[in-house]
């Protein structure tokens, strides 16, 4: 279930590519107990509850799929869990939704097959406050004040992240000077809210909206009158499309993901395979989500003795147990499902052992022409260091 059209089409295209590459690799190794995987894609368009539920039903009732594995669909708020639970198949998504925890905990037996392959949105907020505090405390950045401005998109995902930032700020010595201020999104006009932000002279500006094109407009309008502030843009600034629009004005922006591609040998070899397969314009940093989930599922299904079709509850319970019990070292890091939430545990936001959690990665755009994101945190995964954005005065 992937948004191949609509505002998240850029991500949807990469989620599709990640599934395709993983399926090709699994099949080249013999499939699951000799049976090849066959991918089927349904467009979730604007990712409304009706669109995503309809996609799930089509996959189950028409295509008889054994599992649904995809990136995110922002909008259904777990309503798609119902037809999936009725069918008793495996579902691995990356909706980054705290509500996933609540749904699983409400009835673990019914939702045994529902897994979230990344940590919940909540961890973005807490992790960001820890990140800027680390920059400050390690001497990499000297903020002009302790004031933070938080802007949120109107999707629940964005609001949860913004509220988590606000809730954690004071604990680490930050003062909330503006927000969380919710802007109706999608939008390309940020000038009114930016005027309000400039008035409080914050050391940090965080925008938790996540559409790449909208965020590019935000950054261009911020640069019309920049302040001495770190600028954090939620997730969408990872996309090549963001840099294509913002160009040199993108340099200095910080962006993070609770599931992203590592820069080690495993991650680099994957990126080369991905780009060789899909071309220079592709984004392995996004496609890695669905790619890793397919491989993890294939391993679990092999351990369990095979995949299960709709209605094969016992077989799919065995697959679900193998998913919970099998720690998988993906190209994004460690996928270790929490036994109660059935979501990936984050490092360092929840676990302090990098061998037991998926790293919350922070990038900075440092060379827009090359389109490369500098991985600046967390240790020990970082390969570059934070650089003060060019719009910040060296004397501030």
From TrEMBL:
Residue stretches making up the Leucine-binding protein domain: 2-342
InterPro entries linked to this entry: BCAA_transport, Leu-bd, Peripla_BP_I
Keywords (A to Z) from UniProt: Amino-acid transport, Signal, Transport
CDD domains attached to this UniProt entry: PBP1_ABC_transporter_LIVBP-like (cd06268)
Pfam families per record: Peripla_BP_6
GO biological process: amino acid transport
Stated family: Belongs to the leucine-binding protein family.
Name of the protein described by the UniProt record: Branched-chain amino acid ABC transporter substrate-binding protein
Annotated source species: Methylocella tundrae
């Amino acid at each position: 279930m992937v948004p191949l059209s609509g505002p998240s089409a850029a991500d949807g295209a990469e989620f599709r590519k990640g599934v395709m590459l993983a399926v090709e690799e699994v099949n080249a190794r013999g499939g699951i107990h000799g049976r090849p995987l066959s991918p089927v894609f349904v467009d979730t368009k604007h990712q409304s509850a009706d669109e995503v539920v309809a996609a799930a039903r089509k996959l189950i009732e028409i295509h008889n799929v054994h599992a649904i594995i995809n990136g995110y669909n922002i909008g259904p708020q777990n309503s798609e869990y119902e037809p999936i639970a009725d069918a008793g198949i495996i579902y691995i998504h990356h909706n980054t939704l705290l509500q996933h925890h609540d749904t699983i905990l409400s009835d673990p037996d019914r939702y045994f097959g529902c897994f979230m392959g990344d940590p919940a949105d909540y961890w973005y907020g807490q992790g960001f406050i820890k990140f800027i505090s680390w920059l400050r405390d390690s001497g990499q950045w000297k903020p002009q004040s302790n004031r933070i401005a938080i802007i949120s998109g109107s999707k629940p995902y964005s609001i949860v992240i913004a509220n988590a930032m606000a809730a954690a700020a004071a604990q680490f010595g930050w003062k909330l000077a503006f927000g969380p201020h919710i802007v109706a999104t999608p939008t390309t006009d940020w000038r009114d809210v930016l005027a309000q932000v400039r008035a409080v002279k914050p050391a940090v500006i965080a925008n938790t909206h996540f559409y790449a094109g909208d965020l590019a407009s935000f950054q261009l309008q911020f640069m019309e009158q920049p302040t001495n502030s770190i600028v954090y843009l939620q997730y969408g600034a990872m996309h090549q499309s963001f840099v294509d629009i913002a160009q040199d004005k993108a340099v200095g922006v910080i962006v993070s993901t609770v599931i992203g591609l590592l820069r080690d040998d495993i991650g680099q070899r994957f990126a080369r395979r991905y780009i060789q397969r899909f071309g220079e314009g592709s984004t392995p940093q996004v496609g890695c989500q669905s790619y890793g989930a397919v491989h993890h599922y294939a391993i679990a299904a092999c351990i369990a003795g095979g995949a299960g079709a709709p209605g094969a509850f016992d077989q799919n319970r065995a697959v679900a147990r193998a998913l919970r019990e099998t720690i998988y070292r993906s190209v994004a890091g460690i996928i270790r499902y929490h036994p109660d939430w059935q979501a990936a545990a984050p490092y360092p936001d929840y676990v302090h052992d990098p061998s037991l959690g998926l790293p919350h990665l922070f990038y900075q755009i440092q060379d827009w022409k090359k389109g490369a994101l500098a991985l600046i945190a967390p240790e020990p995964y970082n390969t570059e260091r934070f650089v003060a954005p060019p719009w910040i005065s060296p004397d501030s």
